[in-house]
Design brief:
This protein is mainly alpha-helical. The protein has eight helices and four strands, in the order βαβαββαααααα. The protein has two domains: 2-76, Glutaredoxin (3-Layer(aba) Sandwich), CATH 3.40.30; 88-199, Glutathione S-transferase Yfyf (Class Pi), Chain A, domain 2 (Up-down Bundle), CATH 1.20.1050. It has helices at residues 10-22, 36-45, 65-76, 88-116, 124-144, 157-172, 183-192, 196-199; strands spanning 2-4, 27-29, 53-55, 61-62. It has a four-stranded mixed sheet. The longest helix is centred in the middle third of the chain and has 29 residues, at 88-116.
Length: 204
């Protein structure tokens, strides 16, 4: 099994964390679509030239984020999986996970807006919108947070995704952007990143 993509992507990192939590061995191929020298390699793996991708021995290459996690959940079985196989709890976790992913996607958009263009060409209203949407998404999860994990006493896929996305958003948020104030998410990140599966996947 080969995980494709750099750990700087929260979407790649959450897969890497999950694989480590499950004890599934994998090879890591750190390719990025933003690197011209790596785009051709990535296109051969994923025609969308996007990460993550998971190259498997039995079902080929998976490129959809939800499909990747569903696949590795099935490998370990429902008793070990971080997402319930069915029921209202599964739907609730997936709904909140979708909000976290959306917040991270807006953080990516804000990062791209400031990183790809000179300052005089950055569209400030659009940048502000991305930053606000990202903050609103994280605020929504903050309001839902229980403890010690987001859903209570047990780690779920929501926690893995939230930590990967929160860490990314904090890492790329511009110093002059409005601060993200989510003490529960910050505490969750601090706690989770003491665990090997999280600490070993922190982008360097």
């Amino acid at each position: 099994m080969i995980l494709v993509g750099r750990l700087g992507s929260p979407f790649v990192r959450r897969v890497a964390i999950t694989l480590r939590l499950y004890g599934i061995a994998y090879e890591h191929r750190a390719l990025s679509a933003s690197e011209p020298s790596e785009r051709a390699q990535l296109r051969e793996i994923n025609p969308l030239v996007r990460v993550p991708a998971l190259i498997t021995e039995d079902v080929g290459t998976l490129v959809d984020r939800a499909t990747i996690l569903d696949y590795i959940d099935r490998l370990v079985g429902s008793e070990k999986a971080l997402l319930p196989a069915s029921g209202l709890e599964r739907t609730h976790i997936m709904a909140l996970t979708g909000i976290v992913i959306g917040a991270a996607e807006k953080a990516v958009s804000a990062y791209d807006e400031t990183g790809k263009w000179p300052a005089q060409k950055v569209h400030k209203p659009l940048l502000d919108q991305y930053l606000e949407q990202s903050a609103d998404g994280f605020d929504a999860i903050e309001r839902e947070a229980g403890g010690p994990w987001l859903m209570g006493d047990t780690m779920a896929q929501l926690d893995v995704t939230a930590v990967a996305c929160w860490d990314f958003a904090m890492w790329v948020r511009a110093p002059d952007a409005p601060p993200l104030v989510c003490p529960k998410l910050a505490a969750l990140s601090a706690h989770a990143n003491t665990l090997p599966a999280f600490a070993q996947t922190l982008p360097s």
